[in-house]
Task: structure prediction
Amino acid sequence: MSYSVGQVSAFAGVTVRTLHHYDKAGLLSPSERTRAGYRLYSEADLARLQQILFYRELGFSLDEIVAILRDPQANAVEYLQARQRQLSEEIARLQQLAKVAERAVEVQQTGVSLSPQERFEVFGEITFDLSYATQAELKWAHSEGQRESMARAAAHTKEDWRQLMGEATAWRAELLASFDEGEPSDGERAMDLAEEHRLHISRWFTSCPPDMHRRIADDFVADPRAFALVVPPSQQRPGLAAYTAKAVHANAARHAGGRTASQEDR
Result:
């Protein structure tokens, strides 16, 4: 049985112009024509069209589809595996963007609106890398602490941000002084600074026990974007991220050894 171009267009959901284009491209030429020159498509042509539409839905170009159909046994699996990898990467990227958009909506809903001048006044050189924020959100997606942290951050007022960033600035100055003056990372001064940072997180975002603080500090070394949230690049020194992480680990060990009482308990 044969079908006219109009019939194929209707039940395949493609335009007549598209079918003409497939014919000119050598992708799908009808097996028959009427005496008047009109295209007629066979059952085999329809099966080929179904393959073409399948590959088009997956995002393959016409040239790629021509190559696949020329020798489907040799090419189809290789092309499909490559496309599967591309689609997986794109899905992950879109999921990240969706998370960023979700958090942006939450921030907008807080009603805290900062002008560019106010934003610089509050945050200074500290910048929030959205790619890192998105990855962190995905990494800790099932963490109650992460959910609490994001909720509390979204609820902060402009004055809250001014206060917590003021605390962070003062703490950062002390950290830099300790590092520049050669204080050991496992000494009392460095460990006290680590404890102060842990309490700052607990006070403003979420409860931060020593084990969690260690994981946060490990990110300082593993990902420069994480440490940039604590010390802007213009103020960083070689080895400072590792120094801070070691101080955090030493402070966590101090807690585990019970040699000092947490300031939270005083």
